[in-house]
Design a protein that fits this description.
The complex is a heterodimer.
Chain A lengths: L2 H12 L4 E2 L3 H7 L3 H13 L14 E8 L3 E8 L4 E7 L1 H10 L10
Parallel strand pairs in A: 1-4
Antiparallel strand pairs in A: 2-3, 3-4
Helix pairs in contact in A: 1-3
Chain B lengths: L2 H9 L1 H4 L6 H11 L6 H22 L3 E3 L4 H12 L5 E4 L11 E6 L4 E5 L2 E6 L7 H7 L2 E3 L15 H16 L6 H12 L7 H12 L3 H19 L2 H21 L4 H21 L1
Parallel strand pairs in B: 3-5
Antiparallel strand pairs in B: 1-6, 2-3, 2-6, 4-5
Helix pairs in contact in B: 1-3, 7-8, 7-10, 8-9, 8-10, 10-12, 11-12
The chains are: A alpha+beta, B alpha+beta.
Chain lengths: 111, 284
């Protein structure tokens, strides 16, 4: 499954309003077997079976994080009691940047 | 370029000029060490003729510094990796203490920060100033280095409340999901840094994390809760903490009614209620 097909599948799960980060395609194309693991996890997430992270600064949203391998992460942002908003796929560096955008300051290997 | 070698050259210039270096070359090295601006022709000279001589001297001197109690075979492997580089660098991370390492962390002193993977090698470029940061001191304290690491006074910064809370949440979720529990290390690191005033080296941190990870879930959560509770009380003022926790508990209460799976939210709430009570107790 290529990146476009994977995005199409994820839109079927979460709805067409979902938006993807810029780096999604390049990561989707390079991470092995990402389609199966990610789709399975997203289906569970949609069914409310995944534990949320509640950032204190984001009153309106909760986030869900899936580790893929040792350095990649998938992050889904959902509006509380509403629809799913964003899907981010990235490596450690991207995850660090995103944590900052979510109102956090810490980075990992800068690490 | 290896600053230590450059410094030794300038210190011994009387013996080296004119046999190995010219006066002009020494002058350029001194300018480079003093972080003075070099002209374009000086830069060209530095990175061609002078650099080749420095690299040759470095190869011959092959001095390595071992920080921490590292197994001999690991030291030899690290030396080989460092030998391929002509820059001040050190090898650290799980490669030095575990046979199940995912990657090999190679820290290189540079003017700019960047990081990239090349196969299993993870190159992390840090500045000299970065060596004041606890996270890099931790790495350097258990490492094989091709230069003497001058451990400077660490710059210790308080984590933001939001960051600490989210790190805590991720750690609890990793425990509940029986995932790779890497975030526990972050909590332990912060705990020792701020509560015990100690920067754990990467191996000690690994051992402490493994000890907690090997425990049963309930016990693990109790330990992480106790650490985070102490961190919160220690790091932030009572009034700030009381207000932030009160606001946050309201959000968590709403989440419990909105989410289908909320065992994690109950754990966060229980801890934060205790913190709130403790703040109230100190306030009155």
């Amino acid at each position: 499954m290529n990146a476009e097909e994977l995005k199409h599948k994820l839109k079927e799960i979460f709805g067409s309003q979902i938006i993807f980060n810029k780096e999604f395609d390049s990561h989707a194309d390079t991470i092995k077997n990402i389609d199966r693991t990610l789709i399975e996890w997203c289906n569970l997430l949609k069914d409310g079976k995944i534990r949320a992270i509640r950032p204190p600064k984001l009153a309106e949203s909760v986030i869900f994080i899936k580790k893929i391998g040792s350095s990649n992460r998938c992050i889904v942002v959902k509006i509380v009691n509403g629809e799913f908003k964003e899907i981010h796929l990235g490596d450690h560096a991207y995850y660090d940047k995103l944590r900052k955008l979510l109102g956090l300051e810490k980075d990992t290997k800068y690490h | 370029m290896n600053r230590e070698i450059l410094e030794k050259i300038t210190e011994s210039k009387e013996r080296l000029v004119p046999h190995l270096f010219t006066e002009k070359q020494i002058g350029i090295i001194e300018k480079y060490l003093g972080k003075n601006n070099l002209t374009n022709s000086e830069k060209t000279y530095l990175y061609s003729a002078i650099k080749k001589k420095i690299e040759a001297i470095q190869k011959m001197s092959e001095t390595y510094y071992i920080y921490g109690d590292i197994k001999k075979e690991k030291i030899e492997s690290a030396k080989k990796l460092l030998n391929e580089l002509n820059k001040e660098a050190f090898v650290s991370g799980s490669f030095l203490f575990s046979d199940k390492h995912n990657d090999i962390d190679i820290y290189i002193i540079s003017n700019k920060r960047k990081q990239y993977f090349m196969g299993k090698k993870h190159f992390i470029f840090i500045t000299e100033e970065d060596l004041k940061k606890p996270i890099f001191i931790s790495a350097a304290k258990y490492s094989v280095s091709n230069f003497f690491i001058n451990f400077k006074e660490p710059e210790i910064k308080r984590p933001s409340y939001n960051d600490l809370i989210v790190t805590y949440e991720i750690a609890i979720n990793e425990i509940l999901n029986s995932e790779d529990q890497k975030t526990i290390r972050e909590i332990i690191f912060e705990y020792y840094l701020h509560i015990k005033n100690r920067i754990l080296d990467s191996f000690t941190l690994h051992k402490k994390a493994q000890k907690i990870i090997s425990l049963r879930k309930k016990r693990k959560i109790r330990i992480i809760n106790a650490m985070v509770r102490r961190l919160l009380i220690h790091l932030y003022s009572n009034s700030y903490l009381y207000n932030e926790v009160t606001k946050f508990l309201k959000l968590l209460k709403k989440d419990i009614s909105d989410l289908k799976v909320y065992d994690n939210i109950i754990i966060y709430s229980d801890l934060l209620k205790e913190v709130k009570d403790e703040c109230r107790g100190i306030k009155t």
